[in-house]
Design brief:
single chain; alpha/beta; TIM Barrel; three-stranded parallel β-sheet; 14 helices; globular
Length: 339
């Protein structure tokens, strides 16, 4: 519970942005039961993963259409959001704002021309490379760390034109630095933690964090235990160590939340047991610890206790991501390539 009326008021006013909610078909057995928990805890906006690098275009399109219909049928609780103003409107209406993203370019068939179409359907940001190599570049577990391909560079340019925000979570170091350098707009790391605090290939280095911040980007801190601590535990204290590291390194205006709550532990266990890759790359076998939505008041208390002022706290809770979204997202009616 919040111990002061001031912090309770701050949380009531905050637009709280969670940038990573697993919502592929494999996650939906448990997913709907989580939504009231996010709302009750004080979250304002959730971005849902509609597809990943193991998904193909047609099934992902079908899934997105079904989920849009599901949320629209429950419009008294949810508002599908496609702009910053939509997110703020959902907050004013007392509804949970819902957005969509992709973790990998396979749902586009690795075709940059489809970025425009997916944007018009509501996808607002995307990861280009998920953990391993794809035609766009190397993921974070790929030993070669070769960076973006020519096709990957075309994706960056088209994403900038369309207004699709780019996300370096799960990308290799060189790939992410290429994306940041080539992008004309700020880039995010939607759900990553600091490698300086916990050595893991999924975490990002200080070099990446500085490059991200230099272009105005934001890093959402992941709460999954294997990315936070040496003993794979989680909690607000462990999350704060990563928040503090990034804030001290580049400023609190470049920090946000990407808790990535793993409410679909059976799926992750099945994925882990399907082959040796995850164990070889430093993951323990699930279940994994994480920071649940109900810990949000405790996190606000911790930020206050660590000396963050109101502006910094509101930024970390959501305003920082909203700023970058506003610098990326464009109306659905886009200029032609000739303009």
């Amino acid at each position: 519970m919040l111990v002061t009326p001031h912090l309770a008021s701050l949380l009531e006013r905050a637009v709280v942005w969670e940038s990573a909610v697993g919502w592929t078909p494999e996650c939906l057995d448990e997913g709907p039961d989580m939504l009231p928990r996010y709302a009750a805890a004080g979250f304002s906006y959730l971005s849902m993963t509609m597809g990943a690098d193991w998904d193909r275009p047609e099934p992902t399109l079908r899934h997105l259409a079904q989920q849009r219909r599901w949320f629209e049928a429950r419009s008294h609780h949810f508002r599908i959001t496609e702009s910053v103003e939509d997110i703020r409107t959902a907050k004013r209406e007392g509804k949970l704002g819902i957005g969509f993203h992709l973790q990998g370019a396979s749902p586009l068939g690795y075709e940059p021309a489809l970025i425009d179409s997916w944007y018009r359907l509501g996808i607002r940001w995307m990861i280009l490379c998920y953990n391993t190599r794809n035609p766009l570049g190397d993921g974070c577990h790929e030993p070669s760390d070769a960076g973006l391909s020519l096709l990957g560079r075309a994706f960056v340019a088209e994403a900038n034109r369309v207004g699709m925000m780019l996300d370096i979570s799960h990308a290799g170091i060189r790939t992410s630095l290429d994306i940041i350098e080539l992008s004309e707009r700020p880039v995010v790391a939607s759900h990553s933690s600091a490698r300086a605090i916990k050595t893991h290939e999924r975490n990002i280095t200080d070099e990446q964090i500085k490059a991200l911040a230099a272009k105005g980007g934001v890093m959402g801190i992941n709460s999954i235990g294997p990315f936070l601590t040496d003993d794979n535990s989680s909690g607000v204290g462990a999350l704060m160590r990563h928040i503090d590291h990034v804030a001290q390194l580049v400023g609190p205006q470049h920090v946000g939340l990407g808790l990535d709550v793993v409410f679909y532990q059976p799926f992750m266990t099945k994925l882990y047991d399907s082959g040796p890759l995850m164990s070889q790359r430093g993951y323990p076998r699930p279940p994994w610890a994480d920071v649940k939505p109900e810990a949000l008041p405790e996190l606000v208390e911790a930020l206050d206790r660590h000396g963050y002022d109101e502006t910094a706290i509101l930024g970390i809770l959501g305003e920082n991501f909203l700023r970058v979204a506003g610098q990326n997202w464009r109306p659905s009616t886009l200029p032609s390539r000739s303009e």
